[in-house]
Structures are given as structure tokens and as C-alpha cells.
Amino acid sequence: MKESAILFKNVSRVFSVRHNDIAGTVKAVDGISLDIRDGEFFSLLGPSGSGKTTSLRMIAGFDRPTSGSILLYGQDVSNLPPYERDVNTVFQDYALFPHMTVGENVAYGLMIKKVSKAERQKKADEMLDLVRLPGFADRKPAQLSGGQRQRVALARALINHPKVLLLDEPLGALDLKLRQQMQVELKSIQQRVGITFIFVTHDQEEALTMSDRIAVFNLGKIEQVGTPAEVYEHPATTFVASFVGTSNLVSGEVAKRITGSDTRFSIRPEKIRLGSMSDKIDADMVSADGVVRDVVYIGLFTRYLIELEGGGDLVVVEQNLNTTSMDVMKAKSQKVRLIWKKEHVRHVEG
Amino acid sequence: MLNRISTFFYLRPRLVLALMLIPPLLWFLVVYIGSLMTMLLNSFFYLDGFTGKVVREFTLKTYLKLLDPTNLQIFGRTTLMAVLVTFACILIAFPLSYYMARFTSGRFKTFLYLAVTIPLWSSYVVRVYSWKLILAKEGIITWFANLVHLNGLLDAYLKLPGVGGTSLSISPTGIFIVFVYIWLPYMIIPIQTALERVPKSLIEASSDLGARPSETFRTVILPLAFPGVIAGSIFTFSLTLGDFIVPQLYGTSSYYIGKAVLTYQGTSGNIPLAAAFTMGPIVIMIVYLLIAKKLGAFDAL
After folding, report:
1. Structural domains in chain A, sorted by start
2. How far apart are CA B173 and CA B164, in angstroms?
3. Distance from CA of B160 to the nearest CA of A (A)
């Protein structure tokens, strides 16, 4: 196993808040332990307020843990200021210096290190090549598009060759096409420079696309750590099952009718086949009968809402392999038999 | 009916714009530019020394008069005072503005903001006069100097040529102190506004890239606050150049531009010379702004 790049040891961060003269405390991060390994592309995934950004800010040094400690390649950095940590950040709002040119922005870290001007320019040009913005050095940040600013911010953060690069929802402000393009590019840049990337996002698809491993955050705690496949295929908790992708969560009476046990389980919409009432059920299959209540045609696939006999709903997604929008609409109000493999049923906690 | 009027204007945005702009434009053209032009015109006339009447003939005679050593001294003295007052205001205003912008929020920020601006609500003359009580021979400063047995030092300071006088309340130092006091809010507010617009993430980015706080201050905060400093200094500089009350109350026999203008147009009726004198600060301000532009004060705008 590779060495730890970042190690969280039972880290908590408590904020004191004051609202309408009522003082209180909020546990933004609540006793987290986490091991991020050298060279990983690691995502912190969770909804807003789940503690992922606070965790990132504590790695960067903008915030300090209330208790616990953070180790950077074995060194306790919990109380080191940002400028003494070998870690750099790509900010959500890019945070480019508006009074400097693109070249000066990228070379800023080297200027602080008192590297000579010629050397600085050479390195900055190399970095701009890496992020595919050659010849942009003399422009001002205000003259760039959002995607270009993003790349400048990345070049600026990489020029010092940090041990760990932190990315705080860097793609959030970009439109879908550009975001998907940047996802691929970030991943390839990471592989080229070989630096550990820690990526904060609330977009589960983004996390699944790019990461080697994902930590799913909720309410200041980590619900699950695993590879994208593990997190998606084997969600450890109800929260993970519902936050990462969409899931049908079935419990109580409905669960008992289907599986014979009332433990809560989740089943992904794409794992369910929409069959007819005459379809046979094999031994390794599970089934439930119902009526199609709603059909939503989404081009690539169609989403069906099925009301089960005896109560409960299930969402089913089918790719439009041979069907057109006209075909799928005919399914409405039809009686259907839903069939899926037993192995896709996940029993989840919480 | 009302609907139809609304629709009529809604479909003619240019007409609405014209209707809205005409009154302020008229005011601006007539009252501001008009009077400025009248003054410029007057400065090219001259006063007949015998009749004491203004001769309305184009001449540069009046401007030549400005080049008299006494008048040049007045310009030099006033400009130097304006520069010193401006620098003192920057030195005092910057830390306070920085504190207000970065470290306060909510009610406390509002309180500080009010504390800075409330003096502007009270009478200028009262505020200027009140310093007499502090600076006069029988005033608080002399009393305090006696208390701590530093009166010898105070007397020695007052004997210094150029800054001293019979007492602090009649000395260039007195003028300087009162100017710094009354113009300070005009420096604090623009600097604070400029600092307020520097996102916290820029400061974090700088320290993230290895800059210690002092380096961040020099390379990020100061350049971005610079337009605010310039805006504030335009106030303090031009207000000092033109003021005549403070030099009148606290001044020795040395003249300042404002006092000179007052004397020429009020006492001796030499309107052309007063007008020419007034063009002085305008030229000085233009030169000042050009220098500021060269220094990159407006780059971040």
C-alpha cells in the first residue's frame, strides 16, 4: 500500500455562530478519520454544509481543527499557516489577482520564492502550455472566459509542484459541456504531474467520473469511503444510496412483500427490467407487479414511475434502444412486471 | 390611461433617458462648467491699478503676476501642506480602514462607520474652532506638556522655523493638525470601500502560494487598495488646496492659496487675480492625477 499523503486523525471543527443574538455552536466536521494515499485522485463528495469544504480548508491551512490532527506525508500540519504547507489550492471563484497579468498570476508562487524573472517566465509559460493556454501570459484575468480562468488558476496552483493539490468545486461555475471536457483534462493532467489531487464536489457524477476513491460526507461525518464502483454498487448507508446516483429505497411492508424480509434495501432504477405479466421469474430473480403511473421521455433513456400492487412506488430507467418517444408513451397505465436480479438488492443501514 | 402612458414610455427608452438626463445635465453645464468657464475667462482680464476697475481685455498679465516670488511661495507652501496632510491621512486611515473592512461585521461595522462619518454632520466651523481649545497657549496640549514637564520641548519645537509659531494654535503645525483632523473621514471611507471589495479568497490564495502576511499585504492588498487611497487623496489634497478658513484661524502671516483668493477678490476686488489663483489648484490636481495614473492607480478599475 502507498504511503499516506493526507491523514485525518479524529478531526473536528466547531464554529461558534451568532444569529439574532442567540449564540451557539455548529459542528462542521465531526470526528473524521481519513487516509488519502500518495498519487490518488480523491474526491470529497457531499451536499452543501456536509463538512467537505471545511475539511479541505483545514488541509490548506485556512482553517484549523478544533481537535484532532492532520498529517501531510507524516508531518503534523494542524497548526501550520498556509504559507508553510507544501499544498496548493484551486479556488471555487478562481481567486486570480485582478491587478496582475495571467503570466504574473501563474508565476506568483515563484516570485514569492524569489526565483529570477527569466526563470519565472519560462516556468509560467510551461505551465500555461500544460493547461493549454499558450500565449495568454500577457492578458489580464478580466479578459478571460470562465473556463480559461479555471485553467490559469490550475496552472498557478501547480507551478510550485505541491505535494498535494486541493480543488474546491473548481468546475461548479462552468457549463455542462465545458465541465465534462475539464473533467477529462483534469484527470489527464493529474496523471501527467503525478500529484495527489483532493477534489471537493457536490456533483456525484463528477466524483464518479474522475476519482480513484471517494469519501461521501453528510452532516460533518464520512458515510463511506471507497472506489466509485464500490460507492455506487455497494452503498453502505441510505444516505449514500440516495445521494450517489438515484436509488429506489424500499422498506417495511413493501420490502417484505418483495424479498420476504422487512429490512430496508435499495435497488438502482437501471437494474430493473420492465417485463410483461407473462414473464417467468428465475430462481435468482426478484419481481414485483404494478401499474405504470408516469412516463418521462429523456432522449437517451426513459424514466417510468410504477405504482406497485399493494402500495409503494419504484422508479425504473430503460435505455431507448429500440423504442421511440411514441412507443414509450404507450406504456402508461399498463400493468407491468418488474424483474431484477437478487444480487442487485442492497441492504442498507440507517 | 396610466397604462397607456407607461406603455408609451416603455417603448421609447431613449426618450425616458433624455427626460431624466436633461435636468442634471443643465445643472451641470450651467452651474459647474458655466461658472468654471466664467472664472477662466476672468483670469485673462486684469485689474487697472489706478482706477481699481477690471479691464475686460484679453491678457496674460494676470498669470504673469502669479509668477511673483511671493505668489510662487504661496503655491509651494499650500501644495506642500496638501501633500503632508494627505500622507498623514493615509497613514492614519489605512490601518483603521483595514480593520473595518477585514475584521468587523454587522452592527460593530455600522457603529464604526457612523463614528467615522458623524463628525461630518456637525458644523465644519465648530469643529475647526474647537481645536483652538486644544492647541491654544492656555489649551489642553500646553497644560499637558506642563504636567509632564515637557513644556521646554514644546517651546523649543515652536521656535523651529517653518513649523513653529507663537503657539500651536498659530503655527503651520496647527494648520496641519486641524487639516488632518477634518479631512480624515474623506480618506477612511474610500480606502475602506476599496478594501471591502478585495475578496477574502485573494488573500487566502496569496498565502496558499507561500506569501507571508507582509508579502500578501505588499503584493495583493496594497495594489488593490491603491485606487481607494488615490480617491481619498483627491479629496484631502484638493480640499486642503482650496480651504481658507483653517489657515485664516490658525495661520501666521504666511498666505495659503485659499486665503490669497479670499483677500484678492474680497478685500482688494482683484477678481482676475483671484480667478488666476484658483486655476492653480486645478492645474496642480491635473498634474497630481497624471502622476497617479502613471503609478498605476487606475489599473485595477
Report:
1. 4-243 (3.40.50.300), 248-347 (2.40.50.140)
2. 7
3. 44
pLDDT tens digit sequence for A196-249: 999 999 999 899 999 999 999 999 999 999 999 999 989 999 899 889 988 888
**What's the predicted TM-score (pTM) here?**
0.81
Residues on chain B touching A93 (C-beta within 8 angstroms): 199, 201
- Cα–Cα distance, A42 to A39 (Å, whole number): 9
Contacts of A342 (CB under 8 A, 6+ apart): A284, A285, A286
Give the cell for residue B55: 479691464
* Burial class (CB within 10 angstroms; exposed 0-12, middle 13-18, buried 19+) of B44: middle
pLDDT at B16: 92
Of A81, A93, A113, the CB nearest to B207: A81
The model's pLDDT over A268-310, given as tens digits with 9 standing for 90+, comes to 999 999 888 888 888 888 888 999 999 999 888 999 999 998 7
Nearest to A109 among B204, B209, B300 (CB): B209
Residues of B in contact with A111 (CB under 8 A): 219
**Per-residue pLDDT at B291:** 87
A97 contacts B208? CB cut-off 8 A? no
What pLDDT does A175 receive? 87
